[in-house]
Amino acid sequence: MSKNEHSVKRKLLHAGGWQIVKRGAKMLPFGGTAIVLFLVGSDIKRKGLVGGIINSGIDAIPIVGLAKNAVELVRGDFIADKEPRMKKEAL
User: Could you count the other beta carbons within 10 Å of the beta carbon of residue 32?
Assistant: First the structure.
């Protein structure tokens, strides 16, 4: 394994760290609202149109979003991600 390749453990820590940073940034009272608006597209991709809009709307409310994200750090997402679509196989 070369030095440039990252281990699986390091990649998982990096991805998990990014999730914590995003959730923590959303918890900021009014700056979090701006971050939520910036990330609404990724929420819609992951959760679908209705689920993504509802999730982002709740996150955008300063105190409610703070409480929701604090609970989600421990419990997990309230609104589940949609099932990934299967790619069509080439004929």
Answer: 21
